[in-house]
Structures are given as C-alpha cells and as structure tokens.
Amino acid sequence: MNKKNVWIVTGICLIISFILMEVLDGHEKSRKNSLIENELDDPKLYQIIYVTQELETPMWNSIKKGALDTLGSDLSDYKVSVDFWGTLRPNLTDFLKTMEVAIASNVSGIIVQGMNHPDFIRLVNKATTKGIPVMTIGADSPESLRKTYVGSDHLAEGTIMAEEAVKRLGTSGRLAIVSGMHEETYQATREKGIEQVLSKHPDIKIFKMERLSQQSYATDWETNEILNQCPDCYTFLGLGSETGSGIVETIQNRAKLEDYHIFTFDDNPKTMEMVEKGLIDATLQHKPEEMGKMSMILMLKWLDGKDMPLERFHYTPIQIVSR
Amino acid sequence: MSILPNTIRKKIIVLSLTIWIIMAFTWLYMSYTNQKTITKYNDILQRYLLIYQVSLLSESSVSALSQYISFPEKGHLTHYKSSLGQLEKARDQLIMLKNPDNFMKLVNYNNMIRNQVHSMDLAVLSVDKNRHASIAIHINEAVQTSNFISEASLSLISDELTTYDEFYRKMIKQSNELKKIGILVLILSSILLLSFSYRFASIITLPIFVLNRAARDFAQGNFEKPILINTNDEISSLAVTFDRMRVDIKNLIGEIRNKALVERQLHEHKLLLRESELKSLQSQINPHFLFNTLNLLSKMTYLEGAKESSRLIVSVSNLLRHNLRRLDISATLEEEVKGVQEYFQIQKARFLGRFHASMEMNPECAGYEIPSLTLQPFVENAFIHGIEPSRQGGQISVRISNEPDHVVIRIEDDGCGMNRDIAESLLDETTGEGYTGHSTGIGIANVIRRLRLFYETHDVIHIESVVGKGTSVTLRLPKQRRDLDAESHDRG
Questions:
Q1: H/E run at residue B402
Q2: Across the interface, do A106 and B93 touch by the CB < 8 Å criterion?
C-alpha cells in the first residue's frame, strides 16, 4: 500500500462525505417546500362552526351528537370540519365576539343559536354579506338574513303548552307566567302562542311580573312576588328554560305543591326528573339531535349549491311529556 | 495471527486505523444523536417563533397603516408595504405549523390574516380615494382582526404546548437518557480502545521481550531454550536468526568441550606413552640369557672346586636376578639396597683392598618404593668415575635417611669428581644412551629421566662434585606420589 493510494482513498472519502451532507440538506429543504403549497387555502374544505351560549349543556351535547353522527354516515365525499364555539354561560359580549372571530376566520358556514339583539342581527348580516351562510338553531332570529331556522317551533310550543294548561285549569282562572333570569328571544314567541290559545278562553287571565327592560329577575324572587301578588295563581308556566326547579322550590317553601300546576318548556334532566316525580305537570321534549342532524344536512346542501333557496323554517318535532 | 500484516510498520498502521475508526464512529454517533436532538428543538422553536412573528407583524402592519392614514406620506406607505410583505411571507409558512390537532385552527388563522390584509388594502384604497368614512370602517375591521389574530396566536401556542406536551417531556427525558448513553458509550469505547491498543501493543512488543530475555540467557551462558516467536514480522525473522546463532554457539561449545576432552586424553596418552617409553627403555635389555649362563658357570666352577669363583658368580647371578626384574614394577628400597650390596661384593672382589663401601639405611624406609634399578646406576657411576680411575681406590658410601616428606638417598664417593658441565648435562638428561660401562646398561640420564617421570617432579636429584675430591649425589624422593603409583601397582 503506497502513499499515493492512501491519498486517493482519503480524498474519495472526503468527497463522498461532502456529497452526502449536501444531499441530505437538499432533501430536507425540498421536503419542506412541497408542503407549502396552499393546503391552507383549499376551497374544497368546509369548515362549519356552531356557536352557542350554552356549551356543554345536555341539549347542546345532543345537538353536537346529531351533527357529528350525520358527518360520519352519508357524507363521506365532503372534507368537513365541524367546531363548536361559544360560551358556557350566557354572555352576550363573548358570544358576539365568537361570531366576529368566526366571520374573520372566513369559515364556510355558521350555525348559531339565534337572538333578537341588534348587534347579533348586525353580525349575521355581516357574515351573509361576506358570503358566509348563517343558520339559526334552537332559537331563531327572524329579522336577520339567516338562511333558515332549525329547531322547535316556539309558537307551537306556546300553543301546545297553553292548551295543556287550559285542560288542567278549566275554563277560567289565573295563569302565571314566569320569565326567568334571562330574557330569551323565543320566550316572546312562546308567549304569543300562549296568548293565541288564551284568546279563545277569555276567562283565563295571564299574570306576569312587569319587567323593566334590561332587568333580570331570579326565578325564586319572581315566583315569590307572583305568589304574593296573585294569590289565586295556581297555575304556573315557566317560560324560560331553567325556571322549572326555581318555581317548584319556591312554591314548596311556601305552600303545598300539590295544589299547584306547573308547566315548563324545556327538557333538561332536572326538569324531567321533576316531571317524573309529579312536581311538574308537564313539559315539552325537544329533539336536539334531530336539530343537529338537520342543520348539518341543510348547511352542507347549501354549501354544495343544492336545494337553494332553503325554506325559512325547518321545525323539529316537539312532544309533551307528563307523568 | 495470520490475518495480521507482516511488518511492524503495517501492524502499527492497522492499530492506528482501528483506533481512528473506533473514535470516528463514537464521535459520529454522538454527533448524530446530538444533532437530532438539536434539530428537534430547533423545529419546535421555529414553530413558536413563526406564530409570534405572525402576531407581531399583524400588529405592526396595522400600526404602520394607521400611521399612513394619519400622515399619508410615501415613506409611511413604503413602511406599511414592507410590513405587509413580511406578513404575507410569514403567512405562507403557516403550513409548517400543521400538527394532527390544529389544522382547522390554522385554516382559520390563515383566513384571519387574509381578512386583515384585505381590510388593510381596502383602507389604503379609501385613503387614495379620500373616503374617510370607509377608511374608518376598514381600519377598525383590520384592528379588530389583528386583535383576534393575537388571541388566536396565543391559542395556537397553547395548543402546541398541549399537543406536544407529551412529546416535550419525552424529549427532555430523552436528552437526559442521551447524556447517560453518551457517558456509557464513552466508557465502552474507551474500554474497547484501551484493551485493543493494549493487546495490539503487546503483540508488537512481546516478541521484543522474548528476544531480550533470550539475549540475557545467552549472556549468562544458557543456550538451551529455543526462541519461539511466530508473529510473522521482522522480529520473528530476527528470532529465527538468533535461534540459529544459539544452536551454532551451542554446537561450537560442544566441539570445544570435546576438543578439550580429546586433548586431555591426548595428554594422558602422552603420559602413557612416556610410561611405555619408560618401559621400553627399561626392557631393552634381555638379561635372561646371561643369567642362565652365569647359573651354569657358578655350578661348573663350584664343581671344579673354585669356591671363591663360584661365590662370586653367585653374586653376579644375584645381581643379574635383581637386574632381571621387570623394570615396570617398582622395587622397595630394601631390594635396591640388596642389589647394591651384591654389586659391592663383586667390586670388592675385583678391587681387593682398594675399594671400601658402606651402606646405611634407616629401617623405616625399607618399604619405600622407588623405580627398579635406580640406585645401582648411581653407585656404578660413582664407581666408574670415582674408584676405577684412581690407583688407590676409593670409598663409596650410601646413606638413606628418612625425612618427613622425603626419602633422602645420598651416594658419596671420594673419586675424581666431575666438573660442573658434566654434572649439568647429567641433570639435563642430555647425555647419550651409549654404553658407558654400566652393568645395567642404563645410563644416568635414563635413571634421572625415569625418576623424574616416576615422581613427576624435576627436582629429585642433586649433584655436588668437586674435581679431584669426590662426588655426592643426593636423591630427594617425595613420599607422596601421584596417580601413577596406583597404576603401576595394578600392572604388577
């Protein structure tokens, strides 16, 4: 092995190692480059956002389930991403902000729990003008430019419940309406339905607390006041969605519950439990899963450009539940 | 060992190469794993930096726009445009933030930035067209979107942490493990290297030790152990040469020993030869014929009535008998003395009245052994040179005395003596073998030579002589003799 050979071998080794380094480097870079192609701007990707003020509640979880199950089944050629945004407790500012973020993020579609607040309507319209379809779910916002409403028919809710109450009440009496802490938009619609029914029964009078705007009453307080101010009121209608337990407890503290008839409009577990126990006479069961499913199908149809324009309302079934 | 190269140089090169390879691999492995870790960390940092950068640029572009709106100068416009450009560039890189959990968020993030850019563009357009109302609307929109972007940045970062929490913890654990592994690798490769070097160095230097030891053995005169080195390099060829040398030296030493032995034997043979010479000298004479004749003569003269003659012949016969004895047998002093006395008898008869002899011997020396027929030649010599030439005759006395280590025999005559030269030539044994009238035919030289051989000393005889006065020959014979004594006995 002479010197020349040694030098040649060393030189070759060095060259090979340099080449290797370059190749590996280049490989890295090219790998990075190929991904930069606008995956983020893929127009085929649908992002649908559900916005609510009652995240993690049982009703909303059912809506979520309904929506996601739909995704899994017969819509496999869509690339769809679904997210559920909003607040855990009713908070208007955060709720509106979430809407703003969704609009700024240029999502494909927004399905939101509607309200009649002007800021909300403004946002819905802003989204619509930007080309983002908005649908309301659970609660409607009929004055906005939403494409459709999916959920229970609140007017029907009012009428059904009122008729049920009338059955118990008889032809005359006082009907107390408890609004509850949060002024929900559909409460007015429900009330309209109730009034519709009661217009046929002129002897039944509605009693409710006068409410100054922007004021919220605790259900307990409201019930108490009603009991104070209206001693003949033995029939209560809890308009708001969490009024049931408040009414029951307050009455229990003061009088015999059996003398009273209580009707509510929601189907959260506490309420249902009380219906089971007979503390509440009747309540309405909604179909939130159906809402989720229908909303998802409708939104996708819209995004695909099929079945346009949509009907203004897509009502989900409601059912009276009593013991 | 046959796989190793065949010179020490190549072996050392192989050793160096192996060490280099082991070290290189260790270093490469450590570097590689470290590099991987660093790359991972770099990637993570880059992600965070990008998100932060987007947020920052979003804010700065809005504020640049704001400035431009307040002071619509070209400088501000350029500043805004450059911010915008950077923002767009950052947006292009967003895809690298993709992870399994955040894709939609990224899409939204991307769209928000688009939104902000769009609003800002509209604002700039409005500035150009001086539509103040729309300026306000659009800049507000841009500001609001920028705020959303900041919040989304935080949310993205927080999501990163959540998504990669496990991963980060694993990385931290891994880098700790790596430290341990690093130390382990270091220890392992050190052990490997050191043991390998040690073994290899031994392979190279052990033969040198063997050679060294062999050289030391040689120096101490030990040529027996063969040198066994089979490492197939220069040392082993050296060992072969050394071993050959060892064998040669061993053989040479053997030869030398043999030669010495042979020389000793030669020396002994020489001695033996000398003894034979001795014997041959002593057996040149065949007196048996004379003895038999004398016997006859003695009987005849006796029968013829010449009693005196008969007695004389008997003396001669006795003398002859004494002289007939084998020369190779040593005689006792007693026997020699008897021989001398017979001689005296004869010579007395010849030189009636003119010759007087005396013989004295210490009886303790009687059994002392001397070579046969040593006394008589001296006596004869004394007679021939001392008594015969003189008319009055003379006297010869022989005295034998006993000294502790020697027997001293003194033969004195009062004859004519001899001069220094003759005495010395006798002592030198240079006098010829010729017959000089001795009855034994054995010259003094012969006797002296025999004595010297017999006693193996040069200094057995001393001659004092005064011309005209007399001669005295002193023989100092050591009592202790060497091995030749035993041998002579055996042959007897």
A1: strand B394-402
A2: no
